[in-house]
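Sequence decides. Consider this:

===
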Amino acid sequence: MKAIEINNLTVNLNGREVLKDITLSLDEGRFIGIVGPNGGGKTTLLRAILGLIKPSSGEIFVFGKYPEDVLKTGSIFGYLPQRLKVDPDFPIRVIDVVMMGRYGRVGILRWPKDEDRKKTIEYLSMMGVEKLRNAQFGQLSGGQQQRVSVARALAGEPKILILDEPNTGIDVIGQGDFYHLLKGIQKRFNITILMASHDIGTIPAYVDEIACLNYTFHYQGNPLGALNETVLTKLYGKNVDLLRHTDICDKCERLRRQ
């Protein structure tokens, strides 16, 4: 079944054309990376899929329905923005942040049940931060906050997980572990994952498909195909450093064979 279908999408914001002629077909259970430079339209595309931005032209379908209709159900999307904006001094515990992700299932003005608490702990454990459940969220490191935020997005048991630059605040060594976690989540729950990132040198090793976005799509398909001089030049300009990409391709192939 198609999780997402986009046909000739164009989006204008504040009188400026931000996305043009975007077409995408994504099967349920697939993991796609959307890569491109800052300001290239990645966040706008994700927000359009979520039903938070209306297309200027074209159509988006999520499991055959319009995003705004899907959004009302509260159980299809799990969304991780670039950073949850929480005052470092605001006294909210990690477990409470993740429990917020259950509210779409708990319902308005209803108290969470024991099952909701068990699910919350389960996702914290899955993301490797269960021991931090009573810690103050705002006092965590950037990487810890991102793991908690993914647990929050998963707590509603979504069919589609949408991640906007999820490696924000995570050091280079930790990024590989984080991507491995996402891959495990995809396989365990057969969940569809869309991940926006500028990290074109790393994510091809972990995703099933890749789409290269800078105003429009310049490439879609096999992840290794994105590491191509022509594609990279369209994304990042003529001054892009290509010296390391042969090594990156070799690394991706080794990882895929493991």
